[in-house]
Structure prediction request, 252 residues.
Amino acid sequence: MREFLVAGNWKMNGSIAANGELVAGIAAGVPAGSGFSMLVCPPFPYLGSVGSALEGTAGKLGAQNVSEHAAGAYTGEVAPSMLKDLGCEYVIVGHSERRAMYGESSFQVAAKFQAAQGAGLTPILCVGETLEEREQGATENVVDFQLNAVLDAAGIGAFASAVVAYEPVWAIGTGVTATPEQAQEVHKHIRARLAEVDAGIAASTQILYGGSMKGENAAGLLTMPDIDGGLIGGASLKADDFLAIAAAAAQG
Ligand code: 13P
Prediction:
């Protein structure tokens, strides 16, 4: 009942020329009606042009961050309604890079999640532990805390139109991928946590894996029962690499 979602988080990469080439390459490799969804999340300044380039293709548009405020004196911030205006369907909230480098708390992430939904965007809520937390056996506690902040603020009903991404911090940009079993264990835990509140919503919520996902390891991860796609950084910047992951999703 859950479709795969293959999502590229371009982070702070790209240029007008490079983006054009990348989107053309992706679009050529994924015909409409492929049975799974493909999403790209470029930096803010390129949302308009990438959105135009995606028109008529199977690709969807998302952003990497959003303000929790609707409008006003918030220099440098981008409102949810602006993303909607530009054709975004999705927005990533609570990426570990934003939590670690920009001090975003789980409570602020919950506010962003709600603001995004309020504007009709689907939030992709990122959760995940650091290596130290994993070694201390705290993975489930960390993920629960990050999830609970959103559950408390928005309620389980909000997860009917949201995506969760499990991104172990130690696997992001390191080349070290969680094994399919390690990832599945946490994905299963996340779904069980949601199911404690509403089993139906838990069964339909897409839970993506992120962290050094690439063509070579995608198939193993995507065959796991609770892994519903990927949130891909480095390997989303080259059409061939991204399409290799998409090919694994198409087979899964
Ligand atoms: P990498 O795929 O580069 O490890 O990045 C994962 C990520 O952070 C996606 O949001």
In short: The chain has a mean pLDDT of 96. Residues 9, 95, 167, 172-173, 210-213, 231-235 surround 1,3-dihydroxyacetonephosphate (CB under 6 Å).
